[in-house]
Amino acid sequence: LRARDGHPAPYKISHLQLGNEQRVSELLGSFAPKAAAMEARAKRFGYGGLLTYVVGSDERSDSGSSIVGDVGNTSAVLREIREAGLCSQTVWDFHIIPSTTGYDPDDDLFHLRAFARV
Asked: How far is the C-alpha of 44 from the C-alpha of 5, rounded, in Å?
């Protein structure tokens, strides 16, 4: 398809986002297997370990809380990524709405301390 669309040489990509603004629950059992399958294919072609897989999640979980507030599902997705062996190749692109009152690290609004346990 790429060549037929006028680009005969392979694209030189390094980051690949799977999904965009998905609910955390939609990532469970989905993101890690897809990324692992893509990594297996990349290895077959000599590109193993060279891609970065981007989790495209919404700021809100299915419960309406921020994704980092939905620690149960978010932690489960992170465990699946770890079990797939892709921790060093995965980044999480989550979109946040700026606060009108400013960020207070003492409030731990995004429950970032909870991720220290994952």
From this structure: 25
CA torsion, ordered 78, 79, 85, 90, to nearest 10 deg: 0
Helix ranges restricted to H, the chain: 24-27, 31-44, 71-83
Cα–Cα dist 42/45, whole Å: 5
Structural tokens at position 91: 């980044």
Q: How many CA atoms lie within 13 A of 95 on its CB side?
A: 8
Which 3-state string (H, E, C) describes 73-101?
A: HHHHHHHHHHHCCCHHHEEEEECCCCCCC
Per-residue model confidence as pLDDT tens digits over 36-95:
999 999 999 999 999 999 887 765 444 444 455 555 777 888 889 999 999 999 988 766
Nearest to 114 by CA among 81, 82, 67: 67
Residue 40 CB burial class (10 angstroms; 0-12, 13-18, ≥19): exposed
